[in-house]
Write a structure and sequence with these properties.
binds heme C, Immunoglobulin-like, single chain, binds copper (II) ion, alpha+beta, 351 residues, five-stranded mixed β-sheet, elongated
C-alpha cells in the first residue's frame, strides 16, 4: 500500500507539471514555444548555449569522477604523490584556448542575431508603428495610416513590423515572449526593432522593466492576423467615423453623453486623435482584455469605471474625473462595448 506521503508527492508533482504546461502554449506567454522570428532566434541561442554548457559540464564531471577514483588514497600507498604538472605549457594552452573557442561559438551568433534584430535600415519598406509606453498601458500609432489604438496591437503574419519605442514617463520594456526579445522603452531616446509573427494568434505582451506599483499589470496583446485580414482591419479602422457613430440603444446613447459629461473624453480619444493621455478607445468593443488585464465583461468594465484604483493601483485615471455611479457606469459600458469598427477581432484569429 502506498503511504499518504507518497500520494501527496505524486499529487504535488502532477500539480507542478500542470502549472508548467499551463504556462507553456495556452496563453502564449513563453519564450520556449517561439511563434515569431525574434523568438525563434532567441530559442536557437538558448539551445546552442545550453548545448555548449552541457558539454562543459559533462567533461568537468567526467574528469572529476576519474580523478576521484584514480587518485584516491589507497591502502599501502599512503605516501604516493602523483606526477605534478604545474607550469606545463601544453596543458595551460589547451585549457585556455578551449574555453576561448567555446565563448566565441556562443558570442558570434549572439552578436550577429542582436544586430540583425536591431537593424532598422529597411524600416521604410515595411509597416512602422510608434509605440508609447505609459504607466501602465501601451499606445500604438500606425505611422502614415491615421490609425491609433491602445492595448491590442494588430499586425499581419509573415511581415516585418517595425516598432519605434518611446516612453511618456519612466523606462518600460517592450516584450512579447513568443514573438521577440525585450527592448527598453526610454523617455529620451527612441529604440527600434522589428517583430514578425509566423502564424495567426493572440500573443501576450508584457512590460519587463519595473515601472511602478502596477508594473506587473502592464499587459497588452498582439493580434497577428493573415495579411488579408490585416488589410481589412486597416480599412475598417480608417473608415470608422467617430462623429457619425451612434450607439443602437437608448441606454448606450445616454452612455455616450455621459462619456462627455464626465470628462472621460478629455483623456480618451475615439478615432485617430493626438489626445493620448489615456488609451485610445476606437476599437474598445473588440479588446481582448479590458485595461490590459480584466476579462472583457460588462461587470468588469463597470467596476473599472467606478473604481479603477482597485484593479490597478497607482494608475493615472484614478481621481481625475467626477464620481460615476454604478448605474452611470453601466450606461457608459453599454456605449463603449459597442465600439467595434472591424469584423477582424481577437476571436477571428485561427488558433
Ligand atoms: C485623466 C485622464 C483620464 C480620465 C479623465 C479618464 N480616464 Fe480612463 N484611463 C486613463 C488612463 C491613464 C487609463 C489606463 C490605465 C491603466 O491601464 O493603467 C485609462 C483606462 C481606461 C479604460 C481601459 C481602456 C482599455 O484600453 O482597456 C477604460 C474603459 C476607461 N479608462 C474609461 C474611462 C471612463 C468611462 C472615464 C470617464 C468616466 C475615464 N476613463 C476617464 C485616463 C483617464
Ligand atoms: Cu512598464
Amino acid at each position: 500500500m502506498r503511504s499518504a506521503f507518497g500520494k501527496m508527492k505524486t499529487a504535488f508533482l502532477l500539480a507542478v507539471t500542470a502549472l508548467i504546461l499551463a504556462g507553456c502554449g495556452k496563453e502564449n506567454l513563453t519564450a520556449l514555444v517561439p511563434k515569431g522570428v525574434g523568438a525563434q532566434k532567441s530559442m536557437d541561442l538558448i539551445i546552442l548555449t545550453t548545448a555548449v554548457m552541457t558539454l562543459v559540464f559533462l567533461i568537468v564531471i567526467i574528469l572529476f569522477v576519474v580523478v576521484l577514483v584514480r587518485y584516491r588514497r589507497k591502502k599501502g600507498q599512503e605516501d604516493y604523490i602523483p606526477e605534478q604538472v604545474e607550469g606545463n605549457k601544453t596543458l595551460e594552452i589547451v585549457w585556455t584556448v578551449i574555453p576561448i573557442i567555446l565563448v566565441l561559438v556562443m558570442a558570434v551568433p549572439t552578436v550577429v542575431y542582436t544586430f540583425e534584430l536591431a537593424d532598422d535600415s529597411k524600416a521604410k519598406d515595411h509597416i512602422n508603428i510608434d509605440v508609447k509606453g505609459n504607466q501602465y498601458w501601451w499606445h500604438f500609432d500606425y505611422k502614415g495610416e491615421k490609425i491609433q489604438t491602445s492595448q491590442d496591437l494588430y499586425i499581419p503574419t509573415g511581415e516585418k513590423v517595425y516598432v519605434h519605442l518611446l516612453s511618456n514617463d519612466v523606462t518600460h520594456s517592450f516584450w512579447i515572449p513568443s514573438i521577440s526579445g525585450k527592448l527598453d522603452v526610454n523617455p529620451e531616446n527612441e529604440n527600434t526593432m522589428y517583430i514578425e509573427a509566423n502564424e495567426e494568434g493572440v500573443y501576450w505582451g508584457k512590460c519587463a522593466e519595473f515601472c511602478g506599483p502596477s508594473h506587473s499589470l502592464m499587459d497588452f496583446k498582439v493580434v497577428a492576423v493573415s495579411p488579408d485580414k490585416y488589410k481589412q482591419w486597416v480599412k475598417d479602422m480608417q473608415n470608422f467615423d467617430p462623429k457619425k457613430f451612434k450607439p443602437d440603444t437608448q441606454v448606450a446613447q445616454e452612455g455616450q453623453k455621459l462619456f462627455e459629461e464626465k470628462s472621460c473624453i478629455a483623456c480618451h480619444a475615439i478615432g485617430p486623435s493626438p489626445v493620448a493621455t489615456g488609451p485610445n478607445l476606437t476599437d474598445f468593443g473588440n479588446r481582448e482584455k479590458y485595461a490590459g488585464i480584466l476579462e472583457p465583461t460588462k461587470e468588469n468594465l463597470v467596476k473599472w469605471i467606478v473604481d479603477p484604483e482597485k484593479e490597478k493601483p497607482g494608475n493615472k485615471m484614478t481621481g481625475k474625473y467626477p464620481k460615476v455611479t454604478e448605474e452611470e457606469a453601466g450606461k457608459i459600458a453599454e456605449y463603449l462595448m459597442q465600439l467595434k469598427p472591424s469584423s477582424v477581432t481577437p476571436e477571428t484569429v485561427s488558433k
